[in-house]
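Hi support team,

I submitted a single chain yesterday and got back a structure, but I'm not sure I'm reading the token output correctly. Could someone confirm the output below corresponds to the sequence I sent? I've pasted both exactly as they appear in my results page.

Thanks,
R.
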Amino acid sequence: MTTPKYFWEDFPVGETVEFGEKHVTKEEILEFASEFDPQPFHLDEEAAKQSILGGLCASGWHSCAMLMRMMCDGYILESASMGAPGVDEVRWKKPVYVDDVLRVRRTCVEARASKSRPDMGLTKFRIEMLNQKDEVVLTSIGWAMYGRRHPGAPAGEAS
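Hi R., thanks for writing in. Yes, this is the structure output for that exact sequence:
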């Protein structure tokens, strides 16, 4: 295994970065919905037009899966990721429609060294997924665990 590019120390509180680009297709909306969320507004264009959503759109869970892929490609797979203890909040702000182009904005809102594991730091991110109109379509807040470049260094020395 190669040395990770990103460690806990590389996610300073206050930092905001944008990354990723995902073009959403009708075929993937239908494929995901048929297997995991077979509600009519995710599977049938006419039913979707008649719904409050106004058109065929991705399941919120599909949006979460696309977000996870963009985060993996954007930084997680190059990091000393140790997983996550869970997600505190996910909000679906706007529907994700066919032909939307999505990207991610990640802000580090809190970080702390683990008290019980000197090789690990925890980072709390606010994640926003935006469409091509700069509209926020999804938000997520949660903690992630990363290996530390300098295990056991005082917590205030996150550089």
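A quick pointer for reading it: The beta strands are 16-23, 86-92, 101-113, 120-130, 136-147. Let us know if anything else looks off.

Best,
Support desk
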